[in-house]
Amino acid sequence: MSATIMYGNLLANQIREEIKAEVEALKQSSVHPKLTVLIIGHNPASKTYVRMKQKACEKVGIVSQVIELEEDISEEELLYQIEKLNKDTNVHGILVQLPLPNHINEDRVLEFINPNKDVDGFHPINIGRMQIGQDALIPCTPLGIMKLLEFYRVETKGKHAVVVGRSNIVGKPIGQLLLNQDATVTYCHSKTENLSDITKQADILIVATGKANTIQAADVKVGATIVDVGNTFLEHGGVIGDVDFEAVKEKVERITPVPKGVGPMTITMLLHNTIKVASHFKQ
Ligand SMILES: Nc1nc(=O)c2c([nH]1)NC[C@@H]1CN(c3ccc(C(=O)N[C@@H](CCC(=O)O)C(=O)O)cc3)C=[N+]21
């Protein structure tokens, strides 16, 4: 039996068509959805991601503005830029591209964004709302993964979901969303002992370590569903995930590829969150 490859780009394209129609409808009621991205410094990966976000916005008719700020900008100046966007009624979504330079306090910056415009879903208010199951802006990668699991009819209720990686932007929130959908969730991380013993028990395995080859064929259960969140850029071009895809796919029921797996869903959920905010501006 060969695995189903869960192509995020196919579902992403389908959802983007729906979003495009919703943007059209919003424009009919004089709301022009707009996303503003702040990018600080010259991280090449950040530039690539921001360009992808801009292009995706353009394709569905969302206005995208990118504000490029110098690497040595002060935290106060950055907060001032955010404050202007918080107040600007034409701006629906605000995204501060991460990582930030070391001299800037990331927590302070993320908390400064108006939670109702926080299309990344990184504000403590949104994290709290999500945790208690209230309506919230949900982080894009976890939300994209949930949509992908739903599309491929992956049962979560009562299943053992193992999350490898505990970042605030992927690991922690995807575990919470799976729990909210009645999965039994185990978190693993860099200090976990006997990692393989735990990942082998997973019905659903989410791998978000940012390290290539974290998961090999021996680390998965036959028939499992594997979601690879990794995005490591190779020196000579190309991008790979955290899972040894070729070997693992022979053993499992479903697996996401990299590229064309989770990544395109992340960007699509950014568009989704932006029109979610914009639709609140409709009278
Ligand atoms: N405030 C903030 N929000 C983010 O959402 C955010 C961030 N900072 N910092 C960096 C990470 C990373 N991230 C990705 C988005 C798309 C792909 C993606 O689409 N990747 C392609 C491959 C890359 C390519 O084709 O060049 C794919 O998987 O098919 C990957 C990674 C968003 N991030």
Automatic annotation (TrEMBL):
In alphabetical order, the GO MF annotations are:
methenyltetrahydrofolate cyclohydrolase activity; methylenetetrahydrofolate dehydrogenase (NADP+) activity
Q: Which InterPro entries match?
A: Aminoacid_DH-like_N_sf (IPR046346), NAD(P)-bd_dom_sf (IPR036291), THF_DH/CycHdrlase (IPR000672), THF_DH/CycHdrlase_cat_dom (IPR020630), THF_DH/CycHdrlase_CS (IPR020867), THF_DH/CycHdrlase_NAD-bd_dom (IPR020631)
CDD domains given in the database record: NAD_bind_m-THF_DH_Cyclohyd
According to its UniProt entry, the protein's GO biological process terms are:
L-histidine biosynthetic process; methionine biosynthetic process; purine nucleotide biosynthetic process; tetrahydrofolate interconversion
Q: Which family does it belong to?
A: Belongs to the tetrahydrofolate dehydrogenase/cyclohydrolase family.
What's this chain's function? Catalyzes the oxidation of 5,10-methylenetetrahydrofolate to 5,10-methenyltetrahydrofolate and then the hydrolysis of 5,10-methenyltetrahydrofolate to 10-formyltetrahydrofolate.
Q: How does it assemble?
A: Homodimer.
Q: What is this protein called?
A: Bifunctional protein FolD
Tell me the organism.
Piscibacillus halophilus
